[in-house]
Each structure stands twice: as C-alpha cells, then as structure tokens.
C-alpha cells in the first residue's frame, strides 16, 4: 500500500487508536493532519511521525463544534489543495447503566461520536465531490450492537453506521468511498478504564483470547484508504479478533 502524496485528516489522533491510525498512514507516505483537543498529545504524535521520517501537522479542534470541524476540513484542503482521506476516529465514553445515565452523559457522547462525524463529513463531502475523489473511514464500534453500560455510546456508534451507509450511496458515483470499522475490544486508555471484572468479561468473548492492538485497526484503515480498496464502499468491517461473528 502506498499513500504517497495523499493528504489525510485523522480526528482524535493524540493517543490510542487515532495515534496508531495517524502513524500508519504517515508510514505509508500520507501527509497527516493530526486533529485533537489535546495539544500535548497531538504534538507528541506529530514529533513521533516526523522522527520516523513521516509528514504531519497538528490542527487543534473539537469536532463536536460545527464551526471548528468545518475549519479543520476546509483549511486543510485549502492549504494542501486537496483532501484525500478523512478518518473520523474522535470518540469519548461516559459509561453508565441506562437508569442512572444523565442527559449530560447522553449529550456529550452523541455530540462527539455522532454529530462530530457529521460535522466533518459535511464539508469533506463537498470538497471530495468537487475533486471527484476521496476516502472516508468512520470508526464505529462493536458496541453498536449493544453493550451493558453504553446506551449513549452504542446509540452514537449505530448512528455512525447509518450515516456511513447513506453517505456511501450518495457519494459513490463521485468516486468517493465511505466505510466504517467496528473495532472490538482494543487495548487503549479507553478500554483500560473499564472495571477489571468487565475487562475479563470482554476478553472472554473474543475467540482470539486477547484484546486487539491499535495497529490491528490501523492496518485495516490503511487498506480502505488505499487505491487497492477502490471498489469497497458502504461496508462495515469488524476488526475484533472474532468478537462479533
Ligand atoms: N457484560 C455483562 N455484564 C456486565 C457488563 C458487561 N459488559 N458490564 C457490567 N456488567 C454487569 C456487572 O457485572 C454488574 O453485574 P452484577 O450486578 O451481577 O454484579 C452489573 O452489570 C452492574 O455493573 P456495575 O456493578 O459495575 O454497576 P455500576 O453502576 O457501578 O457501573 C458501569 C456500571 C459504569 C456501566 C460499569 O459496569 C462499566 O464501566 N462497565 C463497562 C462498560 C463498557 O463495556 N465500556 C466499554 C468501554 S471501551 C469502549 O467504549 C470502546 C469500544 O468501542 C468498545
């Protein structure tokens, strides 16, 4: 896979899954715009990429704020003359049993994990339509099928599935592919935050018997972003060691 000359935006790339995705795309030659609210983490991702011979820059952005997401996408395209790849990875969780979940927890998760995806996809689809080329990869989650303690997160990630499939239908004829990844249980700060007994429950559901690594997901995204995946559109791909079958 070769992404030389491609311009990619990865949201939530200061750490965890997003960091792994940004590093992989850069390793394959893309110029990566590391978008996050966490400046220190984003700068660290950038330095790591540059030290390894890649190209990257930081764009601080809260994707839940539509004006900020619009600026991220439009200023990137203006500066580089193109936007080839958009990876919507930014996500938060505010886990709680449904009967205890407050509206703040609901709104925060829906705002970042679903509205945030719409906020970048809307301006990106306009730019990609004009250039008649583009790759959008959205990060959904195995939780979209339902997960105890994640009514807000699951609803948002299910929303991402519908958004992805609709965009795939609308944008396909403009040579733009839109796909979603469902990571299973990946070893990141987010999953490390679950209670120990829940960690064991989750891992026990994985036929491969272990949590995934960010690079397991990043490899799949790199493929979807590459020319080799030019006829894959509207798919939902599980990367979870068989957690969802
Ligand atoms: N599967 C089955 N049972 C579960 C469960 C799960 N995934 N998670 C919790 N439970 C059970 C608990 O074992 C407990 O059962 P008992 O009453 O029989 O002991 C019951 O549900 C209530 O759980 P808690 O006692 O922990 O209740 P709480 O109110 O203190 O906490 C909670 C609830 C905040 C949801 C906590 O259980 C929790 O953090 N669960 C983890 C939720 C989770 O899976 N998050 C995924 C984070 S990673 C991520 O989001 C990335 C991704 O894409 C997957």
Query: N-to-C terminal Cα separation, in Å?
Result: 27 Å
In total, the number of strands is 7
Summarize the biggest pleated sheet.
7 strands, parallel
Hetero groups: acetoacetyl-coenzyme A
Estimate the helix proportion, in percent. 40-55%
Trace the largest sheet across and list its strands. 3-2-1-4-5-6-7
Indicate the overall shape. Answer: globular
Which residues sit in consecutive blocks of at least 5 with pLDDT less than 50?
none
- Return the domain count: 1
CATH homologous superfamily identity: NAD(P)-binding Rossmann-like Domain
Number of helices: 8
CATH architecture level-2 label: 3-Layer(aba) Sandwich
Beta-sheet strand percentage? 15-25%
Main structural class? alpha/beta
Radius of gyration: 17 Å
Q: Briefly note the CATH topology name.
A: Rossmann fold
Commentary on this structure:
The protein is α/β, with parallel strands linked by helices. It has one domain (7-233): 3-Layer(aba) Sandwich (Rossmann fold), CATH 3.40.50. The protein has eight helices and seven strands; from the N terminus they run βαβαβαβαβαβαααβ. The protein has helices at 16-27, 39-51, 66-80, 103-131, 151-171, 189-192, 196-204, 214-225, and strands spanning 7-11, 31-36, 55-60, 85-88, 134-139, 176-183, 236-239. Strand 1, helix 1 (16-27) and strand 2 form a beta-alpha-beta unit. The chain is globular, with a radius of gyration of 17 Å. It binds acetoacetyl-coenzyme A. Residues 93, 95-97, 100, 141-143, 147-150, 153, 183, 185, 190-191, 194-195, 197-198, 201 line the site of acetoacetyl-coenzyme A.
